[in-house]
Structure formats: structure tokens, C-alpha cells
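Please fill in the sequence for the structure shown.

STRUCTURE ENCODING:
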């Protein structure tokens, strides 16, 4: 009865409502981005940051810190957060299961294995995301084989297989990290989720990828709605569900590979953000998918602020927290709550 009353109270999705929600989320993202620029050593006030953003000649030192350190990192958090939340929605639509998520399915760890193998082979630049994508695709194939069925018929078995394959991937990651020798500490930090070690150009590239996903998400929502109804219903609407699922699986794995190559395996964003937005705005993918991209950007930017501020606030001298630890502390309780509710 409660679920019916909530559904009845939720207003129908109209074009005006969708635009309003996305406009509000976009405004919140801009606010989160600006707030994140204020966090850091030698923090300046909002007025000083605004002046440095629009007039670099006023204070050279502030401009250097802002444009070479803070802004690339904030943009990277926004881009990666949007990519991971968007792929969470795609995996959930493919498997028709709200518990599906790249990290839980083992795809993130598989991409990390591929990326570390690429590092050991001396790959860099654009070849590193390619190696991460290959690792993710191999993981998906293994998970499907272990689950003994397609993602349509046995999504629960695939989730369990993903958890186990992800654990094996984590063991392989630690084994290969020992082979990196002097780079071990930085590689461990990267594996736990690290936004500080990425090159300056990674931030704009991640934002461009997230913007592309957001642009493509706008017309894709109707097809995902049909996919959620089942194969027969999708076929009656002229959609080849099997082909669409295969394409979405490849696209989602490629997106996760890009995110992992930039900053390691960051989990639970694809679970927490779509879950909260689905409960708030409903399951219509015409709004859920683009809203999750924006919401994921906001979420990871805020988590990065916590990772940078918490050690200083507590007086700890060990440096900033890995961003993956912050998202796991938030996402794991949400996952447990969803399991207990049986949804």
C-alpha cells in the first residue's frame, strides 16, 4: 500500500518536469563544483576564487593553484562520477535488477586488472583505457559463464558470480601490484580510488565523456523503458532487446574502463545515486538516466571534498582518504538496506 501511495503521489513525468529536474541538478552541480574549488591548502575565499577564475592576471599564485591543481581534480571527480552513475543505470536496466552495479558485478575490478596489466606492459595514453576496457569485457564473459545463463534469465546468479569474480580480480590486483616494485604505494592508492595522480588533461576528458553520455542518454530513455518491460513487450514496440542489451553491455564496459583508467576502481556510485533518484523521481529512464549522470557528478565531487577535508578536521597526518573508501562507507550500508528490503 505504501508503494502505491508514493507512486500515486508522484506527479507524472512531463517534458517540463524533466527539464526542471535536470535544470535543478545542473545548478546543484555548479554549486558543488564551486564549493570544491574552495577546499585545499591555502584556501582562498569565494571572491578570490571568482576573481582568479575570470581574471588570471590579478593573482598569479592563486591562478596556478586553481587551474593546475584544484580545477582539474574537481572536473575529474565530476566526469568520473557521472560516468559511473550512468553505467549503473545501464546495468540495472539490462539485468532488470536495481542491485546491479559495475563494482558489484566485478566489472570495475576487471577493468583495474586490465589497466594494471597495461602498466606492466608499459602502455600509456589512450592504450590504458583500451586495456581496462578489455579487462572489463573479459570479466563480463566470465561472469556470464559462471552464472550459467544470460543476464535476462538469471540476474541474481549473475550478481553472485560478479561478487566472486570481483574478489578474484582484487586478489589478482594485489598480486600484480607487488610486481610494480617502487610504484607499489602509488598503485595501491590508485587501486583504492585516487583523483590526485591523474594528469591535468584527464579532468576535461572525463567531463567530455560524461557530457557525451548525458547527450546520448536523453533519447535512450524510451528504449530502456521498453527493455524494462521485457523482451516481448520491447519486440512489440519494434526494439530488438537482445541486440540492444549486447550494445549496452559493450558501451557500459567501455565507459567503466575509461573511468577506471583515470582513477582506479571506485565502487557503489552506480548503486547509490540511481537508487536515491529512482525513489525520488520514479523509474522512468527518460529522467532517471540523465539525472543519474548529473547526480553521480554531484555525489563524487562531494565525496572528494570529504576525502580531502576529513583528515584535516580530525587532525590526522596520514594525508587524504582514498575516494573509494568514502564511497564504500556510504554505498555499502545502502546496499545492505536494499537487500533487507528485498528490492
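FILLED IN BY: designer on duty
SEQUENCE:
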Amino acid at each position: 500500500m505504501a508503494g502505491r501511495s508514493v507512486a500515486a503521489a508522484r506527479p507524472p513525468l512531463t517534458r517540463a518536469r524533466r527539464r526542471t529536474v535536470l535544470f535543478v541538478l545542473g545548478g546543484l552541480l555548479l554549486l558543488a563544483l564551486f564549493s570544491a574549488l574552495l577546499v585545499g591548502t591555502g584556501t582562498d575565499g569565494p571572491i578570490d576564487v571568482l576573481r582568479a577564475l575570470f581574471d588570471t592576471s590579478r593573482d598569479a599564485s592563486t591562478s596556478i593553484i586553481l587551474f593546475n591543481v584544484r580545477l582539474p581534480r574537481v572536473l575529474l571527480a565530476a566526469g568520473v562520477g557521472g560516468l559511473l552513475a550512468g553505467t549503473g543505470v545501464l546495468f540495472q536496466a539490462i539485468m532488470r535488477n536495481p542491485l546491479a552495479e559495475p563494482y558489484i558485478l566485478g566489472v570495475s575490478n576487471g577493468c583495474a586488472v586490465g589497466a594494471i596489466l597495461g602498466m606492466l606492459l608499459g602502455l600509456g595514453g589512450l592504450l590504458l583505457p583500451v586495456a581496462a576496457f578489455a579487462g572489463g569485457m573479459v570479466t563480463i564473459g566470465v561472469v556470464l559463464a559462471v552464472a550459467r545463463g544470460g543476464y535476462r534469465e538469471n540476474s541474481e546468479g549473475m550478481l553472485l558470480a560478479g561478487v566472486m569474480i570481483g574478489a578474484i580480480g582484487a586478489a589478482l590486483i594485489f598480486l600484480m601490484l607487488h610486481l610494480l616494485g617502487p610504484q607499489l604505494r602509488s598503485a595501491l592508492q590508485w587501486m583504492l580510488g585516487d583523483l590526485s595522480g591523474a594528469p591535468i588533461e584527464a579532468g576535461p576528458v572525463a567531463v567530455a565523456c560524461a557530457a557525451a553520455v548525458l547527450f546520448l542518454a536523453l533519447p535512450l530513455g524510451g528504449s530502456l523503458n521498453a527493455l524494462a518491460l521485457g523482451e516481448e513487450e520491447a519486440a512489440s514496440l519494434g526494439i530488438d532487446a537482445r541486440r540492444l542489451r549486447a550494445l549496452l553491455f559493450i558501451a557500459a564496459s567501455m565507459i567503466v574502463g575509461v573511468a577506471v583508467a583515470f582513477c582506479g576502481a571506485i565502487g557503489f556510485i552506480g548503486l547509490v545515486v540511481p537508487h536515491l533518484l529512482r525513489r525520488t523521481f520514479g523509474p522512468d529512464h527518460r529522467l532517471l538516466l540523465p539525472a543519474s549522470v548529473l547526480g553521480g557528478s554531484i555525489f563524487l565531487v562531494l565525496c572528494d571534498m570529504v576525502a580531502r577535508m576529513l583528515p584535516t578536521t580530525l587532525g590526522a597526518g596520514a594525508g587524504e582518504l582514498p575516494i573509494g573508501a568514502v564511497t564504500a562507507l556510504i554505498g555499502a550500508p545502502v546496499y545492505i538496506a536494499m537487500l533487507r528490503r528485498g528490492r
